[in-house]
């Protein structure tokens, strides 16, 4: 008997155990496709979701949740990561009953998503206290909801806990559609990696920062804004991040040309980028041969131009990310302009005539 044949009973036993677990699990488990088609739902899921199926049809997850989570499809479609959690502990009230469902959604890959549904109506009082916002969070909510500046409070892992009316009006979603959503679902891809790097740096040093970003509104409109991010100081809430937005009416792509004039918030790092993409594109195929040395020389040129507390890191797609620890935006713009010219000079003088000719018409973003 072959080794494969010997393993078959063991594999069959493991498969049967998995199926038994799925069908006996006390929580609802649903496997579905990006278009909402349900491929598998265990009995608990069917029991929990049948009240949402007015016509008895349980073949489409989005259709089932259409009345309680109408924006579910758009949030799933706009989630850019190849895999990850899209919703965490989203609470949904079943119409016509006192039932409260809690929904988690995970993207497994481009073709498969998993939803976990639980009935949390009859939680114990202790568990209810964990789920409910603490008194401090409710106090924060009452303050932030009155601000005219768009505000989001989310966990360190990106899941939204609270948004005020100004943010809801800006983005086009109501509060129920945003709580429990990963904020990355509202952001377009971050080609330079600046926003992601800024979050990671803040996790290390705890310092607030500002960075220019784009958001995608419900109707698909792309909005540019200056985002200020700060961690709450209270020890019990240190895992919470407060984000405020200062929208500015810029045409799409305007961020590539620099940051609009604004007042620098005292003690807040300004996150900016220097992109070599225009130069690498102009150089073409030769870039692969010189990129390593080019990035090293560029870093050596920029670093001495920064202040002692400023931070320089390499980003994605031939970009450098700069954290200005102090100073005004006008001063930052001057520093970046000087750095841009110095970097261009390096390419004009250090890599031969052919590269110099191709770079002559290119500019550093």
From TrEMBL:
Protein's name in the database: PAS domain S-box protein
SUPFAM superfamilies: PYP-like sensor domain (PAS domain) (SSF55785)
Residue span, PAS domain: 136-207
Signal peptide: none
Superkingdom to which the source organism belongs: Bacteria
């Amino acid at each position: 008997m072959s080794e494969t044949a010997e393993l078959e009973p063991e594999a069959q036993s493991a498969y049967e155990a998995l199926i038994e677990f799925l069908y006996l699990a006390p929580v609802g488990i649903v496997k579905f496709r990006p278009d909402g088609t349900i491929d598998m739902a265990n009995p608990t899921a069917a029991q929990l979701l049948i009240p949402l199926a007015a016509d008895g049809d349980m073949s489409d997850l989005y259709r089932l949740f259409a009345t309680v989570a109408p924006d579910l499809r758009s949030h799933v479609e706009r989630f850019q990561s190849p895999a990850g959690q899209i919703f965490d502990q989203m609470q949904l009230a079943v119409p016509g009953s006192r039932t409260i469902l809690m929904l988690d959604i995970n993207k497994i890959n481009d073709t498969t998503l998993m939803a976990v549904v639980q009935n949390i109506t009859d939680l114990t009082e202790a568990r209810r206290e964990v789920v409910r916002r603490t008194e401090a969070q409710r106090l924060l909510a009452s303050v932030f909801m009155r601000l005219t500046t768009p505000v989001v409070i989310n966990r360190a892992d990106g899941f939204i806990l609270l948004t005020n009316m100004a943010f809801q009006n800006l983005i086009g979603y109501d509060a129920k559609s945003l709580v429990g959503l990963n904020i990355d679902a509202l952001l377009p891809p971050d080609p330079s990696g600046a926003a992601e790097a800024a979050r990671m740096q803040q996790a290390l040093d705890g310092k607030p920062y500002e960075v220019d970003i784009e958001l995608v509104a419900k109707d698909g409109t792309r909005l540019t804004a200056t985002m200020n991010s700060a961690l709450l100081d209270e020890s019990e809430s240190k895992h919470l991040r407060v984000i405020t937005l200062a929208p500015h009416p810029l045409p799409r792509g305007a961020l590539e040309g620099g940051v609009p004039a604004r007042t620098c918030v005292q003690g807040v790092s300004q996150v900016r980028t220097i992109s070599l993409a225009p130069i690498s594109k102009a150089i073409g195929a030769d870039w692969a041969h010189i990129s390593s040395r080019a990035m090293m020389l560029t870093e050596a040129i920029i670093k001495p131009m920064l202040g002692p507390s400023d931070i320089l890191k390499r980003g994605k797609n031939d970009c450098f990310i700069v954290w200005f620890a102090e100073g005004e935006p006008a001063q930052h713009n001057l520093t970046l302009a000087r750095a841009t010219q110095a970097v261009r000079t390096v390419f004009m003088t250090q890599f031969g005539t052919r590269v110099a000719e191709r770079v002559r018409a290119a500019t550093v973003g």
